[in-house]
Specification:
Layout lengths: L2 E6 L3 H12 L4 E7 L2 H11 L3 E5 L7 H11 L3 E6 L4 H10 L4 E3 L4 H12 L7 H11 L17 H11 L4 H8 L3 H15 L4 H10 L5
Parallel strand pairs: 1-2, 1-3, 3-4, 4-5
Helix pairs in contact: 2-3, 3-4, 7-9, 7-10, 8-9
Amino acid sequence: MTIRVVIADDQALVRTGLRMILDNADDIDVVGEAGDGAEAVRLVADLDPDVVLMDVRMPEMDGVEATAAIAAAHRTRVLVLTTFDLDEYVYAALRAGASGFLLKDALAPDLLSAVRVVAAGEATLAPTVTRRLLDRVVTGLPAPTSDERLDLLTGREREVLQQLARGLSNAEIAELLYLSPGTVKTHVGRILTKLGLRDRVQAVVFAYEAGITR
């Protein structure tokens, strides 16, 4: 299956570089380019791509607002492009419904892998990057608020969510909690269903906002 991608970045040179990398992959097709968030939202409505590579800071409508609009109305998944000096915007984009983020200086194989993972319905936050991102933005978050959805989780599911929010992979969680990786995967799936979340990225955001971990 060919993965259809829209690139949204206000810098033409960046768009060109991303297109060159993506066009070299047999299973990825760049179907459109947008210079701002509003144009990205229009392209998604017209083209129904699988993935949008979304810059954060753009004129007219930034990547956060565009991500929220796309996540609310379309099946298209958003992969945020960023640098670490824009962490606060990335957190907002993840909260708005992005399926992950990628650094702009990522290597070509990492970019291709991230697009494929997101297109498959998974998240792209590598464990170490999750920790770095959330450690940097957590000091600016509001105080955690009680969320009644937590009552839907079993004790074991809360434990898995807590470790997931720390940025641990399924294999690492399995080793820590003396479970099989398959059991952890099942717990993660149940957590997402019970909390009404799309992927483990949103589960991490939820855990921080609900005070599961800080």
